[in-house]
Amino acid sequence: MAEQRTGAARELSGARIAVVGASGALGSLLVAELAGRGARLLVVGRDADRLAALGTGTPVVADLGDARAGDAVAAAAREHLGGLDGLVNAAGVVAFGSLVETPDEVVEELFLTNVVGPLFLLRRVLPLLEESQGWVVQLSAVVAEQPLPRMAAYSASKAALSAATTALRTELRRSRVDVVDVRPPHTETGLAGRPLSGAAPRLPAGKDPAEVARRIVDALAAGEHDLGADAFG
C-alpha cells in the first residue's frame, strides 16, 4: 500500500479555492463537496452556461490549454476573493488506441490539457498561493502508477503530471505551499465514453464519483499529501 503522508489539517470553511474543470462530472462533485464545507469558490471551465448551472461560486471562463487561463484565474481570485488559498485541478482528457493509431494532434492535446496547461496555470497562481501559504491538488490517474497498453499517450501524460506534482512538493516546501498528488482508480465519470480518439476497452465497473470526490476532500481536510489508487478502497 502506498504511504499516506499527512501534515497539518487544512481548514476548508472560508477557504478561497479555485476548482479547474469545475463543470465536469468529478469537478462538479468536488465543487459541491467544497461548497458544503463552507469554501469560497472560483469555478473555472470553458462553458459559461455549465458553470452557471453549478449554482455556486464565481465563474471564470477559461481554457486550460491557453497560457492566459492562469492570468484570468489569478485576477478573479484577487477581485472576488481577495486572494487564493487553494487550487484544485480536476480537468483532463483521455484517448485510447495503439500509439501508431493515435493522431499527432491527439497526442498533443493530451499533453496540453493534462500536463502543459496545468503547469502554465500553476506558474501564474503560485504567487497567490505563496502569499497564503496555501495548497494545490492535481488529479492524475491510476495509469500514472500502472500504465496500460492502448493508452500509452494518455498514461504518459498522467504520469508526467504526477511526476511534476511530486517534484513541486519538495520545490515549494520553503514557500510552505502544500502539493497534493491524487491518482484515483477508474471512476464512472463518463470520461471513457468521450475520448479524443479511439474507443475504450472493456473496463471493470468504476468507483462512484461522489465517493471519490468525498474521499479527495476528506484527504484535503486531513492534510494528506499523496492519494494513490489504493487509498480509495
Features of the shown structure:
seven-stranded parallel β-sheet, globular, alpha/beta, 233 residues, single chain
Would you write up a description of this structure?
- The chain is of the alpha/beta class.
- Helix content is 40%, strand content 13%.
- The chain contains 6 helices and 7 strands; from the N terminus they run E-H-E-H-E-H-E-H-E-H-E-H-E.
- Strand 4 (86-89), helix 4 (104-132) and strand 5 form a beta-alpha-beta unit.
- Helix 1 (25-36) packs across helix 6 (209-222).
Concise description?
With 233 residues, the chain is of the alpha/beta class. The protein has 6 helices and 7 strands. The protein has helices spanning 25-36, 48-53, 69-81, 104-132, 152-171, 209-222, and strands spanning 16-20, 40-45, 58-61, 86-89, 135-139, 178-182, 226-227.
